[in-house]
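Posting for a labmate who doesn't have an account.
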Amino acid sequence: MVKVKICGITNKEDALLCVKEGADALGFIFTKKSPRYITHLEAKKIIAELDPFTVKVGVFLDEVKERVFEIAEELSLDVLQFHGKESAAYCNFFKHKYKVIKVFFPQGSPLREAIASYKIDAFLFDVKPENKLKGQSTLPGDLLREIAALIKEGNRIIISGGLTVKNISRIRKLHPYAVDIASGVEKFVGKKDEQLVKMFIEKAKGIG
C-alpha cells in the first residue's frame, strides 16, 4: 500500500485531521523560504499532541548540520528531508541517527546517475519551484516512466509535484513507496481541507 505524507503542517487541527484520516507521515517545513514555514517551537507543540506512531518529518533547505541536529533532537524527529542543494556527503552524514530523504528536481541527467552516490532511505521527485510558477504543476510523462523504472529496481521512491485527488490514481499505478502532498489538499496556503485530505488518502491507498 502506498504511504502518504502530508507536508506543510502549520497547526494542530490539521495535524490531528491528517492522522485521523490515515496519513502515515506529517511534514514540518523549517525554511523561511516556504509559505508553509513553521518555527521549531510551534512544531514542538503540535508534535506533543500526535499519535506516537505518526512519523514526523523535518524539511530543511541548505541548513547547517548543527542546526539540523539541534531541531531534530529537540523535536524527536523520525525523518530528515533535504530539499535544497545538499550533497551526497551531507545527506549520508545524518544516516547514523536518522532516516533521510533527499528531494530531486529532475532535469537533464539520468535519474539513476543523479541518485547513485546518495546512501539514504528514500528519494523524492518534485517539480522545481520556478517551473511551478511557469505553469508546470506535475512531473512530465517521460520522467514518470524513468521514475517507474527506478521503482521496479527496488528503490524507495516518493512522488510529489502537483498531486491532487484528480491525478493520484494515475500516480498510484506506478506503485511508488510513497506520495507527498501539500497544496493539493489545502483550502488556502497553510490550511488543509478536511474533505480533500480524506479523499486523497483514500485514493492513494486504494481504500473503498
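Reply:
Got it, the C-alpha cells are right above this. Residues 141-152 form the longest helix (12 residues).
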